[in-house]
Amino acid sequence: MTQPLDINAVSAHYGTTKVLEDLSLSVQAGELVSLLGASGCGKTTTLRLIAGFLSPTSGSITLGGRDLTRLPTHKRDIGLVFQNYALFPHLTVLENVAFGLKQRGIAPAERRKRALAMLERVGLAALADRAPGALSGGQKQRVALARALVIEPPLLMFDEPLSNLDAKLRVDMRVEIRQLQRANGTTSVYVTHDQEEAFSISDRVAIMNAGRLMQFDRPEVLYRRPANTFVARFVGFENIIPFKVTAREGDRVTAETAGMALRLPQSAYGTIPDTFLLATRPDGLVVSTDPAAEGLPATLGLRTYLGRAYQYQCETPAGHLIANGSLTAPLESGTAVKLVPAPEQCTILAAEGAR
Amino acid sequence: MSDRPHPILIGVAALVYFFLMVPLVIVVGAALSDTTYLTFPPQGLSLRWFENIFAISAFRRTIVTSLQIAFLGTLIALLIGIPAAYALNRFRVELPRWLGTLFVLPILVPEIVFGFALLKSLTVGAGVPVFVALLIGHTLLVLPYVVRVISASLASFDFSIEEAAISLGSAPVKTFFTIVLPNVRAGVIAAFILAFITSLNDVSVSLFLTGPGISTLPIQILAHVEQFFDPTVASVSVLLMFLTVAVMAVVERTLGLTFLAK
Ligand SMILES: Nc1ncnc2c1ncn2[C@@H]1O[C@H](COP(=O)(O)OP(=O)(O)O)[C@@H](O)[C@H]1O
Ligand SMILES: [Mg+2]
Q1: Is the CB of A42 under 6 A from ligand 1?
Q2: Which of A91, A115, A221, B147 suits a disulfide with A217, CB 3.0-4.6 Å?
Q3: Residue nearest to atom 24 of ligand 1 (CA)
Q4: Architecture label for domain A5-233
Q5: B109-163 pLDDT, tens per residue?
Q6: Are B232 and B60 in contact, with CB atoms under 8 Å apart?
Q7: How far apart, in whole angstroms, are the C-alpha atoms of residue B57 and residue B63?
Q8: A164 touches chain B (CB under 8 A)
């Protein structure tokens, strides 16, 4: 029952405003893919296109090889879970869950049985005869989940399903969603603006910006090897420093930024192009008081306490950088230090034109 | 804040109720009077003025006409107004803002002018039969109320509920009846009652549109008081109130229950 979803070069407009540009995305059967990006980047629009509430201006969408593009929503067989739950207020919890089965012409006794079984799975069988209005936010979202799952759709889509819940419940619920999705093996598209949420439950994550796909990969890859500066900044590579290679001798590559030279071991970084960007998280710059250390000279500014480390705002000829220093030896503002890149915490990005 | 309302609040509420009830009490009292002229408090008790309503054929006919017009007019206004209100709210972002205003505009036109304009265009201009002209006039009269009241109800309706139903396999038109309408039930009932009463009590529009042989109850009451000063008008008023309450009760029950039973 599980099917792959293919979005092929889809563009979408609201009126004359282009909101999605040439978006292509393939979700394998049984996979959970998250669309991640800031508010307004086109995540909901993408879901609405797949669901059929909106038509693409170009491109096509197929589910299990079946072309959805011209199919009306009610024939697409897609389970939807909304941020605001969207339960039917005039129906009981059980009737809500049985609604999709009723549309499929399933006999009352059978749909009652199946709806109850699904409510059992989300732990709400005891509330079957309640009105949705009498439920808590978490319970409402479980009902919505049961309602979408019970029709056994080949595709399940979530639009920020946990945004209205409090922090603790959000974490519990995302685990629950993932477990149900895994158990059913339902191909799923999950929209969120919360990076931790996306990374924790997804097989792959599509990072979007201004209607375009920036990178689509496993969370581990996105986290360690962002493909461009946008994704790098998004996943917390706060320092992005432009370099030019001035000399290569064996494994040693000498590169320069703002008049400062740095020698980098090529084997630790992978291929280093002639012009590149060195991207690191604050953890990837080691604060060293040794004047002979192989690093960028910097003057420490404001120090903040992170619990696991001290964080320093640093002024360097290459601009403002952020580095984390050890807890054992806090340094004062104004101290002259060297910032030494830790290769395993850094990544090399191709220099980008006028981005 | 204490749980008990403030004494001044209770006083004001009591006063409001008093002023609302007094005219009703006076009219009911006068209708029951045994005298041949309008008086309050009633002198003697009698139902003869109620009997008199039915003895006068013009009253019998106009009661029926008024009920027919009010019922049909309200029904047509709902048939036009519900989809209009739905479209105005569903596509609020896409539609120009003045479109919503268009439906409330008739409320701003003095009813006398409205009635006269209809007379000129429908009866005189197009030669439309009196009953049909009345029906059109009343439909247009109540349509703005219907659109307003149902729009207010739809404004708090979350349209993602409709989308959820469609995604679960319910066709859009079916979804409108099984999901949208039941959730604006209160608005539909309120619109029905408001429109029905507005139509039943209308004088200004009907005044121009009634014609030979066809009149409405309020117009007949006017005609009657021009010639007689007996308590019949009071008893007709009581009857009108009774009809209104009856209609409200029936609408509450039927619309309320059929929607609840899906
Ligand atoms: N109905 C609409 N009409 C016009 N513009 C819209 C409409 N819905 C969304 N947009 C615009 O399209 C862009 C993408 O919106 P959306 O897909 O909802 O973003 P996201 O879900 O990622 O926050 C936004 O700039 C938004 O303002
Ligand atoms: Mg959104």
Answers
A1: yes
A2: A221
A3: A40
A4: 3-Layer(aba) Sandwich (3.40)
A5: 888 888 888 888 888 888 888 899 999 999 999 999 999 999 999 998 999 999 9
A6: no
A7: 10
A8: no
